[in-house]
Amino acid sequence: MTTGASRAAESGAAESRATGSGATESGAAESRATGSGATESGAAESRGDELRTAEFRAATAEETRTLGARLSALLGPGDLVVLSGPLGAGKTTLVQGLAEGLKVRGPITSPTFVIARVHPSLSGGPALVHVDAYRLGGFVEVDDLDLDASLEESVTVVEWGEGLVEGLSEDRLEVHIERGAEDEERLVRLSGVGPRWSAVSLA
Ligand SMILES: Nc1ncnc2c1ncn2[C@@H]1O[C@H](COP(=O)(O)OP(=O)(O)OP(=O)(O)O)[C@@H](O)[C@H]1O
Ligand SMILES: [Mg+2]
Known about the structure:
Blueprint lengths: L1 H7 L2 H28 L7 H6 L1 E6 L2 H12 L7 E5 L6 H12 L13 E4 L7 E6 L21 E6 L12 E8 L6 E8 L10
Parallel strand pairs: 2-5, 2-6, 4-5
Antiparallel strand pairs: 1-7, 3-4, 6-7
The structure holds adenosine-5'-triphosphate (ATP) and magnesium ion (MG).
């Protein structure tokens, strides 16, 4: 796919970041796993916590798209989805599935110099705002991107948004994608954060 190829040229920089983010994330994931039982559950019942995380295995890119399409059924206006995972993990591929499920105008790509795109609905539903924060070094105010869309009325998905966009909303769906043991295998972990997701079954 051209999306992967467009980033291939940058592999020098990408490699080091992929390594760095992997190390950081695993630390964060561990503490979060612990924290969700201890800290967060102050408010949420443990049963609620279980519903807020789910893991899937996608054997092919097509399966990742299908997962994205299924996931889109849970999304509505105002929702924020934060995608993380190393370069080439399949974040954009999953967004392609989301776009398909949401019935918005495509195509979903990873343009090198465009930070965000608005994909209007073809069916009267919410638009999809696709942000790629790869090149943004600091905190993102998506409103500053001056998009021709209202985030309250759109589904916003942000690649490489971890650590940057959490302040945008107290509710967000985190999607983390990692490579599995097989060449095309990907492990996709969903975690719902905030009251919006507290009673939603992600499984
Ligand atoms: N199971 C899979 N799920 C997703 N993509 C897969 C899978 N197996 C193979 N691929 C391939 O891996 C590549 C994933 O590229 P994609 O652009 O979606 O990754 P990305 O995480 O968005 O990368 P970037 O960090 O550059 O934004 C595609 O070429 C896709 O065809
Ligand atoms: Mg991408």
